């Protein structure tokens, strides 16, 4: 198995690169989806969140009210740390199981683990390669405004709230520059796939 950690700032083209690698045949595991899955009704993580933040963070049907919880932890470092202390270990455990399952089904599998908070959450799976998507701040802001309908000031706040891009790039084995055309991003993803396959063949 070949395990890639894929990360990057908000609206930095991460999903575009993930989708391209998936088209080439990679197994795609999305940490954001796992983070939603581990707090579904009936999960230990959701019970721990209710214990930490009170039943007011639930909708009437027992599911997590993300907006309410977000309002509590936004701007409160201690509350956010408490939440992350519940969610991150649950995601790590589930992702570990999914990665092991992919390897069991195909020992030659290329697994792309798409983790926005790879740096912040200190995700420590044994990655063969860490890939960081990188776009200029103005491109990230423009994408959030155009594609997600955010107000410019809100978009800027979202981008600026994230870990410094240089910190993210410092852990990268490969940086994919997504500030240009879509074709340019795709060609870099294609070159990455060719490199991975070559490394796998070299391993024998």
From TrEMBL:
Alphabetic keyword roster: ATP-binding, Coenzyme A biosynthesis, Cytoplasm, Kinase, Nucleotide-binding, Transferase
InterPro entries: Depp_CoAkinase, P-loop_NTPase
Pfam families linked to this entry: CoaE
PROSITE patterns registered for this protein in UniProt: DPCK
GO cellular component, one term: cytoplasm
Reaction(s) catalysed (UniProt annotation): 3'-dephospho-CoA + ATP = ADP + CoA + H(+)
Enzyme class: transferase
Listed SUPFAM superfamilies: P-loop containing nucleoside triphosphate hydrolases
EC number(s) stated in the UniProt entry for this protein: 2.7.1.24
GO biological process: coenzyme A biosynthetic process
Pathway as given in its UniProt record: Cofactor biosynthesis; coenzyme A biosynthesis; CoA from (R)-pantothenate: step 5/5
Highest taxon above the source species: Bacteria
Positions contributing to ATP binding: 11-16
Location of the protein in the cell: Cytoplasm
Molecular function, one GO term: dephospho-CoA kinase activity
Main function: Catalyzes the phosphorylation of the 3'-hydroxyl group of dephosphocoenzyme A to form coenzyme A.
Classification via PANTHER family: BIFUNCTIONAL COENZYME A SYNTHASE-RELATED (PTHR10695:SF46), DEPHOSPHO-COA KINASE-RELATED (PTHR10695)
NCBIfam families on file: dephospho-CoA kinase, PRK03333.1
Similarity comment text for this entry: Belongs to the CoaE family.
Full protein name: Dephospho-CoA kinase
Upper classification of the organism: Bacteria, Bacillati, Actinomycetota, Actinomycetes, Micrococcales
């Amino acid at each position: 198995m070949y395990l890639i950690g894929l990360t990057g700032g908000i609206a930095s083209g991460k999903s575009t690169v993930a989708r391209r690698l998936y088209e080439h045949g990679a197994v795609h595991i999305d940490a954001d989806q796992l983070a939603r899955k581990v707090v579904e009704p009936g999960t230990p993580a959701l019970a721990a969140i209710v214990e930490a933040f009170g039943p007011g963070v639930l909708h009437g049907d027992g599911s997590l009210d993300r907006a309410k919880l977000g309002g509590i932890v936004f701007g409160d470092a201690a509350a956010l740390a408490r939440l992350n202390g519940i969610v991150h270990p649950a995601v790590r455990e589930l992702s570990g199981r999914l990665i092991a399952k992919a390897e069991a089904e195909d020992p030659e599998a290329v697994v792309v683990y798409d983790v926005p908070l790879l740096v912040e959450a200190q995700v420590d799976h044994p990655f063969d390669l860490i890939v960081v998507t990188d776009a200029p701040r103005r491109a990230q802001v423009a994408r959030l405004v155009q594609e997600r309908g955010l107000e410019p000031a809100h978009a800027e706040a979202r981008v600026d709230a994230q870990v410094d891009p240089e910190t993210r790039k410092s852990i990268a084995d490969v940086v994919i520059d997504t500030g240009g055309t879509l074709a340019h991003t795709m060609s870099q993803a294609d070159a990455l796939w060719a490199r991975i396959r070559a490394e796998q063949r070299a391993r024998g």
